[in-house]
Amino acid sequence: TGSKPDISRVKSAELYEKSKTYFPGGVNSPVRAFKSVYGTPLFIEKGDGCYIWDADGNQFIDFCGSWGPLILGHNNTKIREKVTEVMQNGMSFGAPTALENELAELIIKNNRFVEKIRFTSSGTEAVMSAIRLARGFTGRDKILKFEGCYHGHTDALLVKAGSGLVTFGETSSAGVPKSFAEETIVIPLNDKVAIEQAFAQFKDQIAAVIIEGIPANNGLIIQDEDYIHFLRKICTENNSLLIFDEVITGFRVGFEGAAAHYGVKPDIVTYGKIIGGGLPVGMYGASAEIMSNISPDGGVYQAGTLSGNPVAMAAGIATLTELNKSGFYKDLNNKTQDFVASIQRFATARNYKFKVFTVGSIFWFAFTDKDKIQSADDIDAGSMEKFKIMHRELLNRGIYLGPSGYEVGFVSAAHTKVELEKAKRAIFEALDLVFRS
Ligand code: PMP
């Protein structure tokens, strides 16, 4: 089999011409602009189950899932019905509703890691608030983050490593004051010496260490369990808080996320994506003691006009009710693991420099021969050219992956054996083409 002809993008291209006149880059979030893959962005018209359709009527099996929230697939009947029911009574009050209690109860009663929570409207807001809480609680200013972890676009975290092992960060976005970046220390993942050195150098100054439960925004950079336990220990010894940013991993790798996966108790946890079932919800939570620092109980201010929005709560309730059913994660994770294992077997049998890294229902296609990728430095930027070819070949075969080789893919409960078989065949063909060219 050779390359397939490119799908039609006439309507999408027309919409893109127009959107470029309205939005920078034609989009409302940069990765959507297809800058690191072939062609113009696809404008999506509808989704159902594991399928999406673009404006030209092309149909795809979707492995992006709106970047993670859609663990039940698109247009899930239970979510849609619950949201529709709640909407009959109005869409926002800016006053408490019973729905907030209902979603909170689902989360807190089934999660060992949070006693009290606060809902926000995005992951970014959740993380920004968690950082403020850690600073307010500890009375310290510095934050330690890892190269290769993404935590949303809050100023304090749009920071990359400077030169040297342990350095103040440098801003990774224009518009972030240098003085803000200087409060953020950036070190590599999977490096015990670097973190020991950071704690020695900034003794009693580090409010919190923040890490993605399982780093999944710059490839899937799976850490050893031992390293995560080490982080817990060194934070405790230094009276610094450990924040798990579980915006992707929360309710994805299991109901209790990466914290349960590793058996490590973070001090503050952030969630997003899945808890909103496709509507805008974020959340942070901690022990009752730590959360008592949040206004109006405590002095750390945080608020939101649409926080705890009833329609968004309804989507979250419908979603988490499904996820809380016995066997949900076992089925989803087994299905995903079978899928990725056969892709890996295919690539290995043909000696392709290709590895699928995976946890639960998350997977990442890496063009590498390394058995482990545990820090951002382990990723070969040049290999992204291969992803670009793969992405194009897969679109042309009706398979939609997020438009960047650094992004992970997600399998949803709506993907059945039929679609996973079809996807596998397409992936095999695409791999043959990537490695033949
Ligand atoms: N933290 C992590 C780990 C994320 O993956 C993301 C989004 N991809 C965010 C924070 C920011 O969330 P949002 O895009 O909802 O602001």
Automatic annotation (TrEMBL):
Highest taxon in the source lineage: Bacteria
SUPFAM superfamilies linked: PLP-dependent transferases
Top EC category: isomerase
CDD domains associated with the record: OAT_like
Gene3D superfamilies: Aspartate Aminotransferase, domain 1, Type I PLP-dependent aspartate aminotransferase-like (Major domain)
Reaction catalysed by this enzyme: (S)-4-amino-5-oxopentanoate = 5-aminolevulinate
PROSITE patterns: AA_TRANSFER_CLASS_3
An example molecular function term from Gene Ontology annotations: glutamate-1-semialdehyde 2,1-aminomutase activity
Positions where N6-(pyridoxal phosphate)lysine occurs in the chain: K273
InterPro entries named among the record's database cross-references: 4pyrrol_synth_GluAld_NH2Trfase, Aminotrans_3, Aminotrans_3_PPA_site, PyrdxlP-dep_Trfase, PyrdxlP-dep_Trfase_major, PyrdxlP-dep_Trfase_small
A Pfam family of this chain: Aminotran_3
Chief localisation class: cytoplasm
Similarity comment: family membership: Belongs to the class-III pyridoxal-phosphate-dependent aminotransferase family. HemL subfamily.
UniProt-recorded name of the protein: Glutamate-1-semialdehyde 2,1-aminomutase
